[in-house]
Amino acid sequence: MELLRIQQIEKYYGSKSSLTKALDDLSFTVEEGEFVAIMGASGSGKTTLLNCISTIDRVTAGHIFLENTDITLLRGKALNRFRREKLGFIFQDFNLLDTLTAYENISLALSIQNAKNIDESVNTVAKQLGITDVLHKYPYQMSGGQKQRVASARAIVTSPRIILADEPTGALDSKSARLLLERFRYLNIEHNATIMMVTHDSFTASYAGRVLFIKDGRLFNQITRGTDTRKQFFDKIIDVVTLLGGGE
Amino acid sequence: MMLFRLSLRNLRRCIRDYAIYFFTLLIGVSIFYVFNAVNTQTAMVVIEDRSITKLLETSMSSVSVFVAFVLGLLIVYASRFLMKRRNREFALYLLLGMSKGKISVLLFFETLFIGIGSLAAGLVAGIGLSQLMSALVVNLFEADMTSYHFIISTEAIGKTILNFGIMYLVVMICNGFMIGKCKLIDLLQSEKKTEKLHLKNMLFCTLLFFLAAFGLGYAYYQVCYSQSELTQEKFVGMTALGAVSTFVLFWSVSGLLMRIVSGIKALYFHKLNVFTIRQIGSRINTMVFSMTVICLMLFVTICALLGCFSIRNSLNKNLDDMCPVDVELTYYRVDEAENRNGTGLIEDARARGWDIPAAFADYTKLHCYRSEDFTFGDFFAESGSLDEVMDKYLFLDYSTLEDVFPVSEYNALMQLYGREQIELDEGEYVIIGNFDSMMKVRDMRLAYDTKMTIFGHELHSKYPECRDGFVELSVQPLNVGIFIVPDSVVEGQMPQTEYVFGNYPDGNKQEKIKSEKQFLADYTAFSEELNHISINSRQDMANASIGLGAIVAFIGLYIGLVFLVACGAILALKQLSETADSIRHYEMLRKIGVEERDISRSLFCQTGIFFLLPMLLAALHSYFGMKFAMIFLEMFGTSGIGQSMLTVGLLILLIYGGYFLVTYLCSKSMIREQK
Prior knowledge:
- The complex is a heterodimer.
- By secondary structure, chain A is an alpha/beta fold.
- Helix content of chain A is 37%, strand content 26%.
- In chain A, the strands form 2 sheets. Chain A has a 6-stranded mixed beta sheet with strand order 6-7-8-3-9-10, sandwiched between helices.
- In chain B, helix 10 packs antiparallel against helix 12 and helix 20 (538-581) runs parallel beside helix 23.
- In chain B, strands 3, 4, 5, 6, 7 and 8 form a 6-stranded mixed beta sheet that branches. Chain B has a 4-stranded antiparallel beta sheet with strand order 2-9-1-10, with helices on both faces.
- The chains are: A alpha/beta, B alpha/beta.
- Chain A binds chain B through residues 51, 54-57, 77, 80-85, 87, 89, 95, 97-100, 108-109, 111-113, 154, and chain B through 2, 6, 9-10, 12-13, 88-89, 92-99, 102, 184-185, 188.
């Protein structure tokens, strides 16, 4: 079933004299339960794309449909509701509130929704992401990998329709990164979570089921994992990146 | 409930950022309380003249409106400033789906907590401080301490809560407004935006620097050295020129400083200087505007404090110099029809049963003569200088009749005063006065020509200029010039006014007060019947003068303190936030092995320069500002200026220096904790 449809979106920055086309007539769809990675060089527009989908930024033209709702038209209460209920967002630099413990950080997303059974939900996701031990700790008492998993727990605890991650492994060492990505894959396969992840790292992208390559704001190429092993998929990604990366 | 808890948590975390804010609010609240409670504090000291306390109360409450406005601006500014530092936090709330309304509620709670906390703490501090103020009041009104007791003014508390409540409400509305119009993408990226550091063109900077220096110099010169040509429009223009020049000066200095210091390699590459200067340079660019505002505010502060203190000091000193006798009676003879046939006040009084001389140990009489043919304008007209003077001094009243006194009576009075007497030959006259700017105008006339026709006699001034002196009792040097002439000149003329000056029998203060009470009782009983009589007493003037001095001192202190606190707070907030942004730099310095001592020194330099720069220019402004203000201070006398400068200097050192120290220590602990 189609979950997300990006339809001819464009995004311009700057003034008339120096116009930058960050996104240029971009279209694609994401099925429910897919794990999609978006790759591209710096400045290719991948983060802008994610920002537009997550309603952080607005498109200049085009439409984005999530479950047949055009989110580019959302305003005010409907927009808050959309962010609250349909989106989970994971940042490169975690964005945890350092006044709150891990548990409280995760529960905040639920209490904003006035959800019930907060305790049960928090403990469940904590188990899924392997952070039960650090729930009572404050962010500054945790390692980078732990912080990112807490941030991820906060993003998924509300059971959003789609999880958006912007360079989630960017600030992590390779072991923590692998651990996080395995959790993503687990959530994707076991819980049918739809994940869309922006990365410039081929290894990170190789955990996804499909990789979209963006260059100069346009869709350059896309490959699907199919029945490949992760290693094989990784090699394929490297090939495209080599092809793509002339300019980098 | 969750929002409530979250806001409490936030406050606890931001305690360092908010410490200066809270501290400033606390000082603001306590100053506000202290000065509004001042009339309650004065009420307990026994002051003869109740109208003084009434005047004190009125002036305090009107100044308070202005003060509340200034404090309100400061609070709004400070809270907005702190809000900006939390942009990413707000972005996260929004992204988690919190509505803007809820974020506003969150901020509402935060402001509420801070407001209640600062109000409570400030009021406690204020009540404590106002007891100290009582001691000052007792000192100012020269009352005794025995009647002192602990006082809390509920009225002042109510006023403080009301005023600050309104200010906090405005802050809440501003915060809500700010949240309402912000965009998520901007919030999220706010910290990623790096400050653009565009090096300024050296030549352009130098040019501007000299232009600004010239602008300031010109404004100073116009205001201080060519006052005679100064019109109100011109004065406003010069003030504006000064303000603009201040801004341009800071702007150009920010560019020059970097270039010059980096040009001197030995200095630039010494220890941490590279880092320190770069830090300062990067900030001065963005701080030019606030520095200008702070510099101008400090200027107002210094002038207000200096002016008020010197007025107070002079008033008290003048009393001794210019009220050398206990009482002065003035008897007007306004109407020819009422002419008492040449008899004087003493005779008229005696005829009605009031023996004036009996009240005095010694006394003397003085008659003043005036004529329609001898006006202020005539004084200039005779020398032909009237047109020139009228061109320069538009606002003088040229139709005022000049006062003429016979020299023998004048000398008798001077003997009573214990002041220098004058000797006059026939055909001579002397002009006596002590209002300096008027004396200058008269001197101009004398420089033209010393000849003067008075009551048909042609006379020459004995001296080429006016002499210092006065006849009427006063606490201010307001004698605009009187003529002392040989007795023969006024012979046959009808005196217009008669003065009787007298001293009560010697005694201590209590006895003198008793004498005065007795005399005043007689005066009240007979004055109606005598008509056209007025009284001036030294004690009366002392009370009024001390009261006036106290009010002026209070107002100056009030405005000065508030402005000083505002300046300190703005600088402190800016400096602290800069430090917070540069924490990574200090960590890096430590990593490459820079000693803690050098880091502290660099921090000290940075903080010091930011506090010093506006103060230096403000001091320069104040020097010329005070020079200008002397024109107005002149009427109070300017003798107390030295002592005032000392007091004001100490006060500024205490508060401004205090803010500097707190800022430095806070910054230091900030970069240390992050280890």
